[in-house]
Amino acid sequence: MLNKFADVENCPIRNILDRIGDKWSMLILLLLNEEQVMRFNEIHKSIDSISQKMLSSTLKSLEADDLVQRKIYPEIPPKVEYRLTERGKSLIPHLQSLVNWASVNFEDISNSRLQYAK
Predict the structure, then answer these.
(1) What keywords are assigned to this protein (predicted)?
(2) Which of 20, 83, 103, 115 could form a disulfide with 25 if both were Cys (CB 3.0 to 4.6 A apart)?
């Protein structure tokens, strides 16, 4: 039983949470869930503290995991839209549960951190 988390490469918990548990992925997924379809600059304006380079990198990772779909329209200048895939949509209820849990517990956890730091 203790060895089930030993193999980093094949551990679903470590592998998947490492990818979506970064600073930006969950925010992007939740935003795309709310807005359905967004262009790069719309996402960037909605999360203004993310750099364009980090946004691009995060979107590529989410696309590689088939959580986000990137659609390019053959126009000049090129039009690119992002939306959740079916796999991405299936993740949303779990992320929303985590958001709800965080909202309910945030104040108590913040107080616990203050107490711990004393």
Answers:
(1) DNA-binding, Transcription, Transcription regulation
(2) 20
Neighbours of 9 (CB within 10 A): 6
Burial of 23 (0-12, 13-18, 19+ CB in 10 A): exposed
CB 67 within 8 A of CB 29: yes
- Amino acid of residue 90: S
79 in helix, strand or coil? Answer: strand
Beta bridge partners of 69: 83
CA dist., res. 30 & res. 95, Å (int): 8
Q: What is the pLDDT of residues 54-107, one digit of tens each?
A: 999 999 999 999 999 999 998 888 899 999 999 999 999 999 999 999 999 999
Question: pLDDT digit string (tens) for 3-32?
Answer: 776 777 778 888 888 889 899 999 999 999
Cis bond before residue 77 (omega within 30° of 0): yes
Structural domains in the chain (count): 1
Looking at residue 108, which CATH number applies to its domain? Answer: 1.10.10.10
Closest CA to 47 of 72, 78, 71, 26: 26
